[in-house]
Amino acid sequence: MAVIGPERVARLFDELGAALALYARQWCETPEDVVQEAFLALARQRSEPENVVPWLFRTVRNAAIAASRSARRRKARETKAAGPESWFASTDDRLDADRAAELLVELEPATREVIVARIWGALTFEEVASLLGCSLTTAHRRYHAGLAHLLARLEGQTPCPTPNAPESPTIP
Question: Do the Cβ atoms of 159 and 148 come closer than 8 Å?
Fold first, then answer.
């Protein structure tokens, strides 16, 4: 493996920074800080990780979860709650971003994570499965079930229950 140079780190940041920040937003309120720390960790590597994009997503995920735990402890001490940030930085007239963000938050965390990693992170299903530690089939099933749920809810319908699935707004 070759040493990772500053130009490569900068190019990866330009390509993936926004998707990684959106991915981190699932867990923490400081996604940009988490992404910056992940890129600093990448720059400190002696050599470029074999699969650098999944490595970045895993690093961001772990750091975001740690940041979330820290923020929860801090909030408990301060007894101060902050509102969630929007999932969508900008929208057009065809999408009610607030409604879509509400529905995305309703999803089971694992399902939401698959959707965000796949759509905004542009990870392959193989990379998503590896990231989540699940099978390729499970990642694919969660993705399609989550999208079907979101679409049905955005169109004002109740999603059809699937066999052996609970009839709740969360998707396993």
Answer: yes
Q: Can you tell me the distance from the alpha carbon of 137 to that of 94, in angstroms, rounded to the nearest whole number?
A: 32
Residue 124, by phi and psi: left (phi above 0), alpha (psi -120 to 50) or beta? beta
Q: Which two tokens stand for residue 67?
A: 């940041």
For residue 34, the one-letter residue type is: V
The answer to whether 39 and 12 have CB atoms below 8 angstroms apart is yes
Indicate the burial class of 166 (C-beta count within 10 angstroms; 0-12, 13-18, 19 or more).
exposed
**Which tens digits make up the pLDDT trace of 94-146?**
556 677 778 888 899 999 999 989 988 889 999 999 999 999 999 999 999 99
User: So what's the pLDDT on residue 172?
Assistant: 45
pLDDT of residue 80: 33
C-alpha of 105 from chain center? 11
3-state secondary structure the chain: CCCCCHHHHHHHHHHHHHHHHHHHCCCCCCHHHHHHHHHHHHHHCCCCCCCHHHHHHHHHHHHHHHHHHHHHHHHHHHCCCCCCCCCCCCCCCCCCHHHHHHHHHHCCHHHHHHHHHHHCCCCCHHHHHHHHCCCHHHHHHHHHHHHHHHHHHHCCCCCCCCCCCCCCCCCC
